[in-house]
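Archive entry. Fields below.
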Amino acid sequence: MGLEEINLENADKFVTLVDADMMENIGRVYYRGMALTDDGGKPQATMIWELIHSDDEERDTESRLMQLNADGDQAKKLFAEYKKDTDENEIRQTSFELACEKEAVFSENGFTTEMREAKQVTVTVSDIAKLPISKKMKTPKYIRDLSELDARVFKRGLLNCLFYGRRETTEDLNALPMDWFDCDVSCYTETDGRIDGLLLVHRTASGRLRIELLINVGPEAKKDLAYMLNFTANRVLEKYSDDTEILIPRNDVSAEKLAAYFFPGLKGEKVLFGSRREEG
Amino acid sequence: MTKAEISDRKKKNLRIMYFWSVFSAIVTEAFCEIFCLLLQKGTITVSGADKWVLILMTMKEAIAVFLVRQWLLYADYSIYQSPDHLKRHYKMMIIPMAVVTVLFICNLFFPVYFSIKQDLAPAYTPFYYVHRILVSLAFLYPLVEVTRHGEKQVPDVHRRRMILTISFFVIVLFTEFVSRHSLTTISHVIILSILFAFRMGDRRFEDKRSGFQSAEYLVKLRRENSTEFEKRPMLRLSAKGGFSSLVKILTAELPKNSEVVRLSDGEFLVLGNIGDKKILREIGEFIALMTSEHDEDHPEETIGLEWKVE
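PREDICTED_STRUCTURE:
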């Protein structure tokens, strides 16, 4: 048995164990992956995690397990190796929110677990079609899709939005290239020649759509947010089939409120949540 | 003239234009009201006095609407500092203003708002009261906006003073309806004087050379809340040369309405929000990238930027 770091060079080797949506994150700044291989180098178990607040001097670095494909002893070996990474990166806490039934595996490795509603909710394009906003509202001209932007203007706009709007966003949002997002569906608002609103949608490798950022710091933020959602909803309806899934992360209070506003009563699926403190 | 200076001049011109249009509207409104009173009291006698009173009163009400419109545009620009937002706001007002103008013209021939009785006193229609309430609400709207947003968007305008102004206006309006005496002009004069005295969109601490804030702005922030000030992260930018190029880059690339302070010729501070060091670092990296590109393109006038987040 051997341990191997999953990186861009060897990622192909692990496609049977790591799902496509997770695999596309390999190579991103804050994502880490590790695999257990047999003597012939064949992958046996994998683990993917993401570092959170690692660049933030005022908060403890945390880690979020994104995927664990291991049982019993395999998991123990992976967690033992993972411990080295937590020491190296001064990780103070590890948590996860996974749709799996491996409670025992996590409990054996020191996690406190419970079943709870997932932060992320999933709707389909056909659910979007039923929303009243997508039918009548006329989108103003200052809302456009990302395909009209160049990378530098996009970066400046992202900084402008994140400077004023505090959001629990993806850690490396600023480092992601513009084409990470679906440029036909994602949109922005512009006031006085500066981007002050962004709705960024990423199309995952499996073909699902995930809202990565929804923010507006302009003078009429509330109104423009509604216009932006309307714009994107119409584009999604034009471009994708009815059964395409849309993932809406509810990372903060405003995202929760927004999801509840458009999809009242919509619940996330039951997932296994767990956390453990990492000793320094 | 740098881009920052041109943009700054445009901004000043807009503010000055709206300020003077509000001011001249008040003067004209007062003139109409005084002349009307003199006619009603019989101090001045002219033939067809009822027609003159009707014209003057209609003019006064029309000017009051124009004043509120200009006031809304002035307040919009003072609050949001955004020409684009101002344009959208301006467009929104075109149709209501056209309708109101037509109604005022009609009032000269039919009693839409009021008619003039034998004793030269006005007989108001119910529609007049609806109109007055709507115009008053429009007048109050920017005050409520400023109160809601607080000092964050309009420095030096304090919420408590705004609430007092709004209360004062409501009392005046109430008195006006109860006494059936027009206090429009006097209330406009008093309220706008108070507001201008509050220095909406204060420019006292502006650094004339760069268009950013001067070092005294830091003293003001520290004086207001030293604990909060100490906690705020800051991006320090030090340039060896290329002052005007750096100002251009900062004006174009920094987030809008950033709090930027010029400490000395080539030294600037960008103030961040408490707990947001990460975004300041990213801004620093981005500005450094822009300046290094500039230095490559203009070797004769390099900026040589150094930066750090404190």
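CURATOR_NOTE: The mean pLDDT of chain B is 79.
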